[in-house]
Each structure stands twice: as structure tokens, then as C-alpha cells.
Design brief:
The chain contains seven helices and 13 strands. With 300 residues, the chain is α+β, with helices and mostly antiparallel strands. It has two domains: 8-248, Hsp33 domain (3-Layer(bab) Sandwich), CATH 3.55.30.10; 254-296, no CATH class. The longest helix has 19 residues, at 41-59. The mean pLDDT is 90. The structure holds zinc ion. Zinc ion binds next to loops. Residues 1, 250, 252, 287, 289-290, 292 line the site of zinc ion.
Length: 300
Amino acid sequence: MRSLPSGSLLRVFSRERATSIYAIESTELLQTIMNRLQAMPPSMLHLGYASMGALLFQALSDPQEPEHVEMQWAVDGPFGKLIADSLGTGKIRSSISYPKVEVSNLHEPLGAGVFQVRRYTPEQNQERYTGLIQSQGDVRVDLAHYLRQSEQRRVLLDMFIDISWDESNPKTPFRINKAYAYLIDVMPGDGADQTLGQWQDYCESLGLLSTWDIQAPNPKMAAQHILEFLAPGESKTLQYSLETELELFCPCSEERAMRALALLSANEKKYLHQDSEGKSEKLLMTCEFCGTTYHIADAG
Ligand SMILES: [Zn+2]
């Protein structure tokens, strides 16, 4: 499953400060995910942060040997398990066990558990790195913590998603107005800690991303605007070392669904939905990421 491009991811490299800076605009992309999963705003915030996080983690990999990134939060909160996979630059799919769960707090934490990241190269399906940390229940905190602790990177990260209620639209009553992220990654080397300190001071002076006045007619220009905030003197002369549109991408297929079915026991199959005609020889399998439903003949 693919969808039309619906967001932007940019990266520039500042020689002056030996730093890579990433910016994401993903408003339309997250709206599509929200509508598809019929997610409520509290679960959508987790899904949105995780989606932007997986895109950023993938973009951090070596362009000569691009990695696939799979993230999973195995946590005990009301939303269940959270997954975000970036299977290629700018490509994302994500899911959460209970997208429709109603909680009273918009910022209800994910719960206690672990956050795991798997990086691998697609050709050889070769494991590059798998890391695990305790989750703090907040995706943004976990992402930064993971990059610092497991990958020893000097990073700063901020994300912002603004959701409002759209009364005129009973079928999809929530509107994502803004969805932005940035990541600052200081290269290792002499003076790197000092450079990170300077970035910290500068980002503090800018305030949270949620307070920035980002005005742009399209996703790419919004991402550009974020970079202009972060590197005001340099932004006009910086070259994009990565410039990609965002798209939903799920490699599910009928063949894969059949293989998954073959692994289930007869007892487990009983719990799969039968098709609308009630014939037991055909089973419905729905992909948890993209919602595509496959009608599969059960061979046994
Ligand atoms: Zn799928």
C-alpha cells in the first residue's frame, strides 16, 4: 500500500558547527493515519510522534547503505502496543493497539514498559543494531533518550502536533492543524560537547517548537522555515543533503497475509472473522497498519 506524498523531510549540514539538522512537516500524512485508524487525539499524539521519530531515525542512517527502522513500545498503558516502521527514506507505517480508546487526559502517557529499535539493511535482512531502553511513557523523551544512550549521539529533538475538533465533519471529526519536528545531531569530534552546549542555549532561547510562528503554503516550505529558525545566518547557503517527500508505505500483500495465516493454529483461526457470507472457507485478514483487508481461502 502506498499513498500520495503528504509531507516533507529535509536535512542540511552546517560545516560551521559540524551538525546535521533535520526538519519534518507531516500534517497531511498524520491526518491520513488518523482517519484510517479512526484514532482519538490522545492515541494520535503517540502515533504521530512515533511516526516522525521513525522517519528521523531512518534518515540518520548512512545514505550509502540505507537502513530500515522498526520501533516498538511494549507498554502496559491504555493504548496498548505502539509500532512505527520506516522501511525506506520518507516512508512510514505505524499502528497502535487501541487507537479509539477514550481517556480524559489528552497527554495520557503510554504506560510502563520498554522501547525497542531495530535497524537492518533490507538487502541481506542483516541486523545492524537492536537496542532497548525503559520507556518513560512519552515518545519524544524516549526517542532522544535512546539516541543518546544507545547510539551515543549528541542530539536535541522537539516535536509538535496540534489537533482540533472539526464539528462539520462527523465522519472524521478531528483535524490535524500542524505537525512538525526537528532533530539536531552534532558530529562526534573535538569540541562536540561544547557545540552541543551552544545548540542547547540557542534552542532554549527559541523556545518550544509549539511556540514558533511557522507560516508556509506547502510542506516543504514549512520544513524550510523550521531550518531558518535553527540556522538563521546560514540557512540560505546550506545545501540539502536530504530532501524527500513523506508517504505511507506498507509492504503487506495477500501473499504475506497467507503466510501469516499458515503460522496460526486451527484454534487461533477460529477467532478470525469470517467473510460477510459467513462461509468458513474464506477468512478476512486486515492489516493493522494500513487497514487493507484480504479475503483468504483457508487451505486448512
Ligand atoms: Zn498493510
